Amino acid sequence: xxxxxxxxxxxxxxxxxxxxxxxxxxxxxxxxxxxxxxxxxxxxxxxxxxxxxxxxxxxxxxxxxxxxxxxxxxxxxxxxxxxxxxxxxxxxxxxxxxxxxxxxxxxxxxxxxxxxxxxxxxxxxxxxxxxxxxxxxxxxxxxxxxxxxxxxxxxxxxxxxxxxxxxxxxxxxxxxxxxxxxxxxxxxxxxxxxxxxxxxxxxxxxxxxxxxxxxxxxxxxxxxxxxxxxxxxxxxxxxxxxxxxxxxxxxxxxxxxxxxxxxxxxxxxxxxxxxxxxxxxxxxxxxxxxxxxxxxxxxxxxxxxxxxxxxxxxxxxxxxxxxxxxxxxxxxxxxxxxxxxxxxxxxxxxxxxxxxxxxxxxxxxxxxxxxxxxxxxxxxxxxxxxxxxxxxxxxxxxxxxxxxxxxxxxxxxxxxxxxxxxxxxxxxxxxxx
Length: 433
Prior knowledge:
Beta-lactamase, six-stranded antiparallel sheet
């Protein structure tokens, strides 16, 4: 029996393949294997790739001990790293962000503090203060210019500081002559401080060309033995108000107004009508920017007390203002475990967790430009004995701000290392490096 054999195929091959199998066949097989390979790669190497990226941020935790806290989120609030972020810490001056946020919401960014002036029937000029934290020499000079267009001669300048309570205590504030210990007052000039120096003969002179050395200022400087620098006027709000009155009197005389009497204390009569309601040239937004830039404890607590007086009526007190701060924190931010005893962060009794401070930062983001800026960093620092803190935003893209909180509650001198680590690792992560 003869079987028909199948046709014999040539045995010549290309790359070991049967030449009857075309290039299209080869490419189809290649694409199949490539697809499998690309599907497997993420499974095998994906976690390693993610870990490599995360390791950059994780390295920033190296400095964080049991006494410290850290948290970093992306622009949408998703947490990138955290450690001990729920433990309550001493925030130091970073607490000023909460004070600033509440003030902006309570009074509005365009709010301007006022100082009112009245002409009495006896020919005296009465000045009533309402807690303006930026009633500086330049402002008093401008006020005198406006007044000089309305009066030509006065007897006494009467100062009224009753808008604030006369017995205000700021927890944590010392009673030193240091400017950061300056107490609040309803009517005070130049942050309730004097800035003096000595000339070549050893005489006390003003260290500011825009500020006169008044008799009261000179007397205080001599009493405390001031050399060069800024010093608080002391704890008495009456002294602060008289000093502001003396500066105003000096500028009025410069502008041709005859001031024949002295500066003394007094109280506004409800029946009096204002000669001038002077509005500060600075908006609240500008006040807060300066408060954060110079980390002014004085300005922060002026804001807290002023808020309380505006909402609940005078006299302004710390407790009235804190009622607003705590209420906003609880109702609007959902922060139920914070402890705020004053508005500047000078007290070691203030407590807030890094997680809760992150919430503050998320709400403060529209005002981030009010913070100090360095390259891609908007930030606020805080310092007390054995306390170092820093909060703010890392600017990754023009519209991407990554909020971060670092609380170190122990002796520590490497805060810059942590900030630099976060900054570099966050930008690298965003770029996919």
